[in-house]
Amino acid sequence: MINRSTKLSTRRAAYNAGLILACRYSTNTPITHHSYIHGDFMSSYSKEEIAKHLKNLGPFPTYSNILNPQHFYQNQVLLEYSKKLPHPVSLRQLAGYGNTLTKQKIINSANFVRIEIPIRLAMRIRDLQTLPFGVVNNFHLAQIYESYYHSFNAFRKISKIETIEQNNRFCETVSKLLDDHVFNLSHLMMGALEVSIAQSLPQEDLDKFMSVMLRSRISRRVIAEEHLSLSENYNKNPYDKKPPHYLGEIFNQCNAVDHFNIVANMVKSSMAPSFPEIERLPDLEIDGDLDATFQFMVPHLHYMLHEILRNSFEATIKTHSKKTSKILPPVKVTIVNSDKHVLFRISDQGGGIAHDKLKKIWSFGKSPDQARKSLANFHTIPGLQLYSNLKVTAAGSSIVTTEATDALHASSLSEQTGRKKSTLEHFMARPYELFLGMGLPMCHVYVDYWNGELSMNSLEGYGCDTSLTLSKLGYHSTQTQLDRA
Amino acid sequence: MITRARCVTWRIPAINPFRTYVQSQSHPISVCEDEVGQQERFLEEYKIRSLLERPIVQYSQKPLPKFSLKQLYRQSEKLTSNTILKNAYDTVEHLLIYNARRLKEFRKLPYLVVLNPSISESYDTYLHTMSSLLRASLYPPHTLKENEEFAEQVLTEFIDVHADTLPSLSKGFSEVSNLLTHQQIKEFLDDHLRERISMRLIAHQHLELTKSINNPDRYVPGGKYNGVIKMLNIPDVIKKNADIVNDITMLKYDQAVKVQIDSNQYQGNYWSQSEPTLEINQELTFPYIEYHLDYILMELFKNSFRAHIENKVDQPVQVTISISRNPLFLELRIRDRGKGIPTKAYKHIFDYSYTTYESGEGEANKTLNVPPGLGGNTVAGMGYGLPLSKQYIEIFNDTLVPNDDDWEVEIPPTKGSLTVQTYNGWGTDVYLKTVGY
C-alpha cells in the first residue's frame, strides 16, 4: 500500500509519534481547503441534494433535547434570570478574603459559584437568542446554544450548599462541566468561521460577539477553577496558613524568562516538522529584567506567549528561509519589570506587515476565502470530534464521547499545568500548518480579561514589535477584574 | 520512529449528515480509520450543510418578478400549448424568488423568535415549499400532460400549505410581542403578507391557465379571461359573500343581516326599502380576481354584520356599486348603521393583531371567524382582517404603468385603495376602489 499523501502522513506521524499509527486517506483527494469550494454549485445534483436536505435548516435538530417546540415556553425561566446582574468579584475576594481557609469561606465560595454561573450563562444565552436566526441556527453555534442551556439548567437547579460534603459533590459537578466543555471553544471558532464564509453577520458584530463570548467563558472558568482549587486545598490542609498575597492554587509564581523559554520550545517543536529544510529555527534572545517574576495562571500565560511567538517565528522563517538555511535572525524579547506591571516587547525581523492589515489582525471576522482555508485546517485537527454527538451527563451538560476526549488529551504535547485539562493546550499543540487565523484575536481577549494591553507595531519591510503588558495580579487583586461576565 | 501499520481501506458509507453517529470501538487501527473517516464524513456533511443556504441567498438576490393586471391579461391572450410550458417554467422560478425572500427574512429574525413553535411552523412551511419548487425546477414540464401534473401536484400543494400559514403566524407574533418592537413586527408582516398574496396569485394564474388550455369549452384563444381574471358579476359576488357570513352569524346569533345593493346604474333606488331587480346585467360586471374580492368582502361583512346584530340594528347593510367603463374602475361603499368604531379603536384598525373582540369571549368569536370549510381564508379575529384586506386591494399599486401606449383605455391615477370612515354612535362607511384595464 502506497501512501498517497506523504506530507500529510509525515505530519500526522510526527505529531502523534509513538501514539497513533501512520495512515493514509482512502479517497483520491486529500482534504485541503480546495475541497471547500463548490465548483458544481447549483448543478442538478446539488439541487437534488439541497431539496432533500433543506428541512435541516429548520430550528429543531434531531439530536437536540433542548431545541424543540416546547423550548420557547420553557425559556421563560431564563428571561427572568437574564434580568439579574452578575456580581463583580476581585481575585482577593475569590481567594477567600484572608489567609486562612475556613469551612464557612469554602461554603460561601461554593454558593457564589452556584449563583453566579447561571446568571452569567443566562446573559450569553440571551446574546445568542437575540442574534439573527440564520446565524445561530448554524451547525456549530446551535450546539453551543444547546450546551450552554444544559449547563444553565444544571446549575440553576442545584440547591443551596451548606456542608462540606455537599460542596464536594458540587465540585464534582463543576469539574465535569469544565471537562465536558472542552469542545465548546472549537465549536465557537468554527461557528465564527462559517459565519464569516456565509457573511451572515457584519464583521464588527461578529468580533463583538466573539469577544464577549470568549471573555465570559474565561471568566466562568476562572471562577469555577478557583473554587475547585480552594476546595481541594481546604480538604487537604484545613485551616492552613497562607502567604499574605495568596490568590489560590490556580495562580503560580512565574519567572518570565523561564516561561518564555518553555513556550519557545513548544512553538519550535510544533513547527519543526513543517520546515525540515531549516536546520535551526530562530533563536530567542532575552534581555532586560531577567529575574522578573509575577503571579499568573500558567495556561493563560502560555497561550498568550505561544500565539505571539508563533506569529514572530513564522514571519521570520517565511521572510528569511529562502535566503539562508543556516542562521535566521533571532526573535528578541525585552522584559521590563515594574511594581504594578510587567512589560514584554517581542521584536522580530519577519518583514513586518502592511499598515492596512495591521488593524485587522485582531479581528475574528475573516474574508470568506480566508475563513474557508482556516475551516479546512480546523477540520483536520486530529482528535476533534466534529459531528453532532451531544449527550447529557448527570451534571446536565452536553458531552462528547469519552473516547474522543481521551484521544484529545493523549495527543496534547504540553504538560498538564492547569488543574483542568485546558482546550488552550490543545490548540497550542496543533500541528504548525493548521493555521486557524484565530490565535491573535483570541490572545487579545485573554489579555483584555487580565486587564492587560496588547498591541503591534510594524516596520514594513523589516519586522514587527509586539508589546504585551500584564498587570501584576498581586498588586491588583482588589480590582474587580473577574466581572467580565 | 514511525510505525507504519496497514490500514484497511475506508469506504465512505452513504451518509445522512444529520444523523448522530455512534463512535465505533476504539483500538489502535480503528483510531486512525476513525480519524480519517471522520474527517471525510464531516467534510461531506459540511458540504451539504453549507450548500443548503445557497439557493436562499441566490434566489433572494434576483429581482422580484414584476407583474401587473396587464401582464396577467397578456398571459391569457397569448395562451397556447407552447406558452403554457414556458409559463410553467417562469412560475417555478418566480415562486422560488418569493420563497427565498421570505426564508431570508425569517432567518433575519432573532433566534428565539424563530424558536417559537408557531413561527417556526410558518418558516418550516416555506422550507418545505422551497424543496418542492427546487425539485420542480429540475424537471420542468415538457408536455401538456406533465404541465397538468405539475399544476395539480406542485402548485395545488403550494397554494394549500400557504393557505394555512396565517393563523400560526398570527399566533406566533402575538407570543413574541415582548421580543420585537411593534415597528419590527409591522415591517415583517407588511412585506410578508404582501408578497404572500403576490406569490399565491402567480400560482393561481398558472393553475387557471392550465385549466383553460386543457378544457376546450373554457379556452378562448386570444381571450382576456383564460387566467385568474374573470369577468365578474359584482352583485352576485356581494350576495355570495353576504350569504356565507350570514351562515356564520346564524350559527352564533341565530340572526342574519340583509344586504341592500344599490348602484350608479340604478339612480333613485337608494331610498326605497325594496331591493332593485338585478337580473343578469352586463352593466354591473367588472373584470377582477374573484377570490381577492371574496376575501375583502367577507372581512368587511363580518365587521358590519356583527355590529348590526350586537347593536340590534334592523336596517340592512347598504352596498353601493359604482362602475365606470372609461376610465375603467370599480368602487364599492359598504355602509352600516352599527354605531361606528370608538375613537380609541379607530386609530388601530389597520394594525396587526388588533381585534374588536373582547378577550374572554372565547369560543364564540371563533365560530364567527372560522367558518367550516373555509380553512385559511379566515384570518379575522386574529386581527389581520382589515390590514390584509387593504393589502389585497393594493396589490397592483406598485405595478401599474400609467403611461403605456399599448392600451387604449386611460388608466386613472388612483390605484387600489381601502378607506374607512366611521361616524361614532351612528355607523361606518368603507370605501373600496380598484382600477382595471
UniProtKB/TrEMBL annotation, chain A:
Q: Which UniProt keywords apply?
A: ATP-binding, Kinase, Mitochondrion, Nucleotide-binding, Pyruvate, Transferase
Cellular component annotations (GO), alphabetically ordered: mitochondrial matrix
One GO term of the biological process aspect: regulation of mitophagy
Identify the EC number(s). Answer: 2.7.11.-
Q: Which residues form the Branched-chain alpha-ketoacid dehydrogenase kinase/Pyruvate dehydrogenase kinase N-terminal domain?
A: 88-250
Which protein, by its recorded name, is this? Protein-serine/threonine kinase
SUPFAM superfamilies with a match to the protein in the record: alpha-ketoacid dehydrogenase kinase, N-terminal domain, ATPase domain of HSP90 chaperone/DNA topoisomerase II/histidine kinase
Protein family: Belongs to the PDK/BCKDK protein kinase family.
Name of a matching Pfam family:
BCDHK_Adom3
Chief site of localization: mitochondrion
Q: Which domain of life is it from?
A: Eukaryota
- InterPro entries recorded: AK/P_DHK_N_sf (IPR036784), BCDHK/PDK_N (IPR018955), BCKD/PDK (IPR039028), HATPase_C_sf (IPR036890)
The Swiss-Prot or TrEMBL record annotates one GO molecular function as: pyruvate dehydrogenase (acetyl-transferring) kinase activity
Q: Does the keyword Kinase apply?
A: yes
For whether the record's keyword set contains Metal-binding, the answer is no
Q: Where in the cell is it found?
A: Mitochondrion matrix
Automatic annotation (TrEMBL), chain B:
In the Enzyme Commission scheme, what number(s) does this protein have?
2.7.11.-
A GO cellular component annotation here is:
mitochondrial matrix
Q: Where in the cell is it found?
A: Mitochondrion matrix
Identify the keywords attached in UniProt to this record, alphabetized: ATP-binding, Kinase, Mitochondrion, Nucleotide-binding, Phosphoprotein, Transferase
Q: From the Swiss-Prot or TrEMBL record, what is one GO molecular function term? A: ATP binding
A Pfam family that the UniProt record links to this protein: BCDHK_Adom3
> What region holds the Histidine kinase domain?
293-437
Gene Ontology terms: biological process: regulation of glucose metabolic process
User: What Gene3D superfamilies does the record tag this protein with?
Assistant: Alpha-ketoacid/pyruvate dehydrogenase kinase, N-terminal domain (1.20.140.20), Histidine kinase-like ATPase, C-terminal domain (3.30.565.10)
| Top-level division of the source organism's lineage | Eukaryota
Q: What is its main location?
A: mitochondrion
PROSITE patterns found in the cross-reference section: HIS_KIN
What's this protein's family per the entry?
Belongs to the PDK/BCKDK protein kinase family.
Name this protein carries in UniProt = Protein-serine/threonine kinase
Q: Which organism is it from?
A: Spathaspora passalidarum (strain NRRL Y-27907 / 11-Y1)
